[in-house]
């Protein structure tokens, strides 16, 4: 039997009291009603002349949902963080630029042990000298095989070696540099922080180990000697290493042999050989690699035949065929004067001269 309030036949199948009532859990609260797109007219409104029983409501223009607000807020935070990181550079920020080392240089004249050998033909001199197998010009400055280091790529190593080679070529092989007419080709490859020292070395050369023009480049006294053959003989090597995480170091050791004759002399005048050995150390920061510039930090030069009694800071003044070194040693050194440079001089070994 049914309950006291049930119909005699029981609850109709599918009726409001049925167990299968799929809407039993639906709660028609106020927000649901307000969100409905269809609205039934009231009794008063239906008494008026309205044909349809319902009307369509215009959609409510509600504000942003909570999810949309959260999304907008997250985007704003991410954008602000990106700007902050871009300004502060918290990762990989470049460190303050280190002061560039001034060039430390040593120029040692090599005096001959007798008369300087000479010949009318430069090729004959070369064939009878240790430079007989040397390459000509830049061919004698080959780039070594290179590999990446812990902090520098292979391309950066190649860039450093190439710049070092360019500096050596411009400072040792360019005729306008050798004859003292120009210094710009070498100067243009130097880090900007070394230019004051470079310029002072040419404006006011000094044997103080810092300001000799001949420490920067090979510079022959144009009033004394000229090239008899522009096919300069060269031999040496380059080597690149990582000095630290921010610096590449390139060391260079090259010997240059020049055929010279007296300035103003004709083609038939006697020719002699002049030898310069340059041991150079270059440093490269990442900025230097990017701008194709370098820091020349050490320069050790031996050159001869020269007279030890002559000043070699502004120009190298070669002794030519048939000449001998002036009597007397190099300029005196005063050990009591702390700012006095130490005079250095060597003797050009007989084996370094052409053999007759």
Protein traits:
24% helix, 356 residues, 10 helices, 9 strands, two-stranded antiparallel sheet, alpha+beta, single chain, elongated
Overview of the molecule:
The chain has 356 residues and is of the alpha+beta class. 24% of the residues lie in helices and 22% in strands. The protein contains 10 helices and 9 strands. The strands form 2 sheets. Strands 4-5-6-7-8-3-9 form a 7-stranded mixed sheet. A two-stranded antiparallel sheet has the order 1-2. The longest helix has 23 residues, at 66-88. The chain is elongated, with a radius of gyration of 44 Å. 29% of the residues are buried. Mean pLDDT is 84; it is low at 89-94.
